[in-house]
Amino acid sequence: MESVQSVNQELNGTRDTALEQLQKSTPAEFKKDIFKKLRGGFFLVVGYLLSPLCWWNDLLFNLPIAYAFGYVCSFLSPKLLLPCSIIGYWLSNIVGILLMQFGSKDIFQKEPQEHNLKKELLTGLISSTLYTLLIILLLQLKILDSPILFSNS
Q1: For residue 31, what pLDDT is reported?
Q2: Category of 142 on φ-ψ map: left (φ > 0), alpha (ψ -120 to 50) or beta
């Protein structure tokens, strides 16, 4: 009987200690968790606006960013405006996908995990490249129509 009472006292003591620790750490942990979720939401929204998943983003976000990138590169050589604008457009889409990945991890991941930036960048680069190649393939097979931007007529 004494052993049952001692176990009960030990469990009550452990429970009280755990409750005290939880009450002490809750405000700081809660603030950290809220900040992490807000940061993740911000990254997710900005990433969505820059990503190719948002169909209306090009005119407002990606094309001005791409043109600015091409314009800065054109200081080196005027012939770099168009190629660097294309590269800037592609980079803005990659940054959008990466921001979405970082934001969604902050929002949906329960336990903090060690980030492998090199792996995450490589994953974003590969997924963006595959998406670009898919769009080029659909354009080449005439499944998607592309606007004629630079016609001679």
Answers
A1: 75
A2: left
How buried is 48 (Cβ within 10 angstroms: 0-12 exposed, 13-18 middle, 19+ buried)? middle
* Cβ atoms 98, 127 nearer than 8 A: no
* pLDDT in the model for residue 20: 56
Q: What residues have CB less than 8 Å from 80, skipping those under 6 apart? A: 70, 73, 74
Q: Is 35 helix (H, G, I), strand (E, B) or coil?
A: helix
Residue type, 49: L
Domain ranges of the chain: 32-140
Q: Of 93, 86, 103, which Cα lies nearest the Cα of 125? A: 93
pLDDT for 111-129, tens place per residue? 666 767 788 778 777 877 7
Gap between the Cα atoms of 38 and 43, Å rounded: 9
The answer for 16, left when phi > 0, alpha when psi is -120 to 50, beta otherwise, is alpha
